[in-house]
Amino acid sequence: MSLPIPFYFYLIPVLFLAFTFPNPSLGANNTVSCPLNITVLRVVGGGARPSVDSGTQCHYILQALHLLQADYLRRTGLFVPPLNASESCWDSFQSFINEFDPNFDVRSSCGLQTAWISQGCMNITTRQKFEATVPPAAIQAVQQNCNQSLDNNAPCALCTTKLSNLLSYLTGTTVGNVSDCRAYTSIYAASLSDQYGPTNPGTARCLFGLQFSSSDSSGKRRTVIISVVSVFCLLVLVVLVGVWAYLRLKKRNEAARWKSGVAGTELGLGSGLDSMNQSTTLIRFTFDDIKKATRNFSRDNIIGSGGYGNVYKGMLLDGSQVAFKRFKNCSVAGDASFTHEVEVIASVRHVNLVTLRGYCTATTNLEGHQRIIVTDLMENGSLYDHLFGSAKKNLSWPIRQKIALGTARGLAYLHYGAQPSIIHRDIKASNILLDHKFEAKVADFGLAKFNPEGMTHMSTRVAGTMGYVAPEYALYGQLTERSDVFSFGVVLLELLSGKKALQTDDDGQPSALTDFAWSLVRNGSALDVVEDGLPEPGPPEVLEKYVLVAVLCSHPQLYARPTMDQVVKMLETDESVPSLMERPIPFIAGRIDIERSALSNSGQLCSPTGYQAYTLQARRKSNSKEEEEEGSSVNVDHAFLLLLISPDRLKRCTQNMLKNLGDNALFVVLEPSSETGRCFVALSPDCTAEFPSPCLVLVWWGSRG
């Protein structure tokens, strides 16, 4: 019997719709799998765990992500995975991390957002777009120098130098510090070759800084499984656990005795190594073992020296190369503050800071009291060695740019990343060390000052090196983070010009590099600061920008200088350099400079309206012929110092600004001098008794004509 026709009429459309349209619930549960091949990390490491510490764990995690992106680029031609695969990629990567540290959540611990793994530099997503952004000559140089084995230091340094050339063309902002423009260069270079691609250990070490220890953890797991079957292996395992527990308990007891002052002995380089506390890996070494490591402080092992003492190279029992800085003229009385300082320094870790490995304090019959710190050995010595040393090397611009950026980042971390903030106080070329890849490492915290939170400046005993010390610090001991900024500006000028901070001319007169650079910039000749014959010079606009940043940082006025965070941003991005404020007359001034400043309108020392700004857009034209002005003349025998004098002190010295002995300048006798005559102060006429802030004045000894 057939069914009624109306039933078929409704049944067929219903069946058609049911098979044609998908189930909404199923569509909602569809996920995109991650295209990144996580197993690449296992291929590179061979089942070993990366040799890293907790302080740099997030840094190595980011580098591991960059290695995965390089493999992805090599296979697909794409830099980043699609956005809808972000969640699955993080899940896959987290599963890999859980094999080593199940309690470490990558995104929350490192402050990473899910979408960042799919966002790149300047919206560059493909290899073709990257190669279209960078000039062909630069791409060809990278391909020629990076498509090879990078196991050795020489080809690695050559490759990274060529990669640095690309940064001036990749000016995008950092996206969550996952796929920034700097990382793009290494990702691109690692993807060039199948033979020497990202899975090659040399490539992983050179371009991503990933080194894997020869861990046998997987072998140990297999041994444990077999030992369960064998009673003999089980007994051996019990014995090993007992020995380990005994040694651990013994080490804890020794550490407790040392901290409480009960233990009167030191721990050695061998099995007696002792951590100072649970949060750092700082080691206290014995003096005898340091003597062995340095071959009894052999002269052949000296790699540096200064007023503090000597620096020796040496090798620890584990085979690692280290540097021993041996201080002279030490006493037991200073050990407490010395120990406190090395504890704080050891807790500060950054890729652009020298790592402190340990220290030693000891008293011997022959050598007296000893105080030594142990740091990582830097293969390329110091920046001073390359710029001014006996084996001077003409560094290329990409390497100089890399050193400048690394130094700026290290200082910025000391000022704003460390808690409490640290003011270095002695930034100079010899305290910028260079590793095998010419990565800058800020060193020598012997003069470091820790800045209490909330304090804008500290008054302290002046310490530092002539030519690098900021004026307000040299004159008044007023110490702020911007005192380090001044020193960085001087180092950057040395790096750009190849000239020392302080020089003497043919007549034996001192000359300051900051004054030399300012005079060129003021006349619109900033590029003349750059050293002649600079290898591989960058774009002129980039070189000029670096010169302007250096001059801005080394400005004699405290608040005219930027912060180190601002400096890093200016050097890394396309952010423009602020207008340069007019400077007072040079620190080391001659007769012409002083007379021009005192008797003309060309060099006002202070003014209620401030200083005239100098910008690139408003460069001064060629110097016009100066007009002579009538008024009192000054016979200057010797320029002494440029000072910042408070309003109250200046009023007292000048009898409330009443001793006006000239038409265009104010001359005041401050104190008599039997050798050189009277001491004078020169002020601008605009400096009145009502001025609200400290005024810049020039003090010299001489006679008024």
Automatic annotation (TrEMBL):
One of its GO terms (cellular component) is membrane. SUPFAM superfamilies: Protein kinase-like (PK-like). It holds the Pfam family PK_Tyr_Ser-Thr. It comes from the Eukaryota. SMART domains: S_TKc. Its main location: membrane. It is found in: Membrane. ATP binds at residue 325. This is non-specific serine/threonine protein kinase. It comes from Mucuna pruriens.
